Amino acid sequence: MLLSAVDFSHKLLKETVSKGDLVIDATVGNGSDTVLLATLVGAAGKVIGFDIQEQAIENTKQKLLLAGLIDQVTLLHQGHETLADVLDDHADVGGAIFNLGFLHGADKTVITRKDTTITAVSALLPRLRIGSYILLVVYSGHPGGMVEKKALLDYISGLNQASFKVLYYGFINQMNEPPILIAIEKKKTPYMK
Fold first, then answer.
1. Rounded CA separation 137/5 (Å)
2. pTM of this prediction?
3. How sure is the predictor about 193, in pLDDT bands with cuts at 50, 70 and 90?
């Protein structure tokens, strides 16, 4: 059975994130990805979650409290473009996920933007552990969504194939611009042993 973009992103996270990892939820939204990541990293791991909307932080905090997973999560009420400052020189991120678009059930004019998303992805690339993923679930069927999608595809198409594998996953025969998944895997470079 073919998986939705969200379900496939969760499958990939389950395959690569390990207990004790540091992982990033770049857009915590309503908390589903954050809860999954907190479960995967366990008590010894750490999830850092970002969102610009207070409602998203509160929704996620409540889900984490109900699941008993709040201790391994740091929620930051700030944009994912601040990732580099938060991570400093940390170079062993076990994975990251973005859900691009708007917060469902909230103000649909508050959307993710191409510049901040590309800044965040650029900051993560050198910090990502070999074999781990940056996953971007891209919702583009709203005003501004196609602009972000196109800019993101242009950017990632230029990533060095010796260092990264990039997958584009999405349904092409569905109406209303269904979400796509972009998966970026950091590869072992030829000069590494």
1. 6
2. 0.93
3. very low
